[in-house]
Amino acid sequence: MTETTGVVPDRLVVDRLIYLMHRIRVSTSEAVGAALADVDLNGTQGLIIESLYELGEVGAAELARRCLVSRQALSAPLDKLEQRGLVSRPASHHSARVRPVSLTAEGRAVAEVARRRVAALETASREIFGTEDLQRFTAMLERYAQFWDDTAEAAGGRRG
Hints:
Distance between the termini: 37 Å
CATH topology: Arc Repressor Mutant, subunit A
Strand content: 5-15%
Helix content: 55-70%
Mean pLDDT: 90
Order of helices and strands: HHEHHEEHH
Largest sheet: 3 strands, antiparallel
Number of domains: 1
CATH architecture: Orthogonal Bundle
Shape: globular
CATH class: Mainly Alpha
Strand order of the largest sheet: 1-3-2
Low-confidence stretches: none
Number of strands: 3
Number of helices: 6
Structural class: mainly alpha
């Protein structure tokens, strides 16, 4: 056990903070997926169309950065959204990296549904905290996220 953190190196996986964060990620993904199932979107697709709703027309590289995935990981969900007529991408462009992606009219309508439903989940998740607890919790999560961003960058990990 380290004196400053109390972390035991041989601690069970399920007792680690990193496992708890993974559990939250999985659970939020499942909850968002369930909330968007009737509009035939999974959580990743919902994030993509919500991001496009906020950003407007944007290149795939920037969209990938916003969605915290690589351009390669963005490709398949974007293809599915394009096949459904929710996003459009010009057939040819001087660079696939900056080839603009935008919502169609139908995509904007679906994005509005997704935004309302995800916002309702977000509101419900915040209501379990009082105002001061929520502010402290948010600040702690931001510090924790920054630690992992810095650690990933130092290790050479890059998104997008």
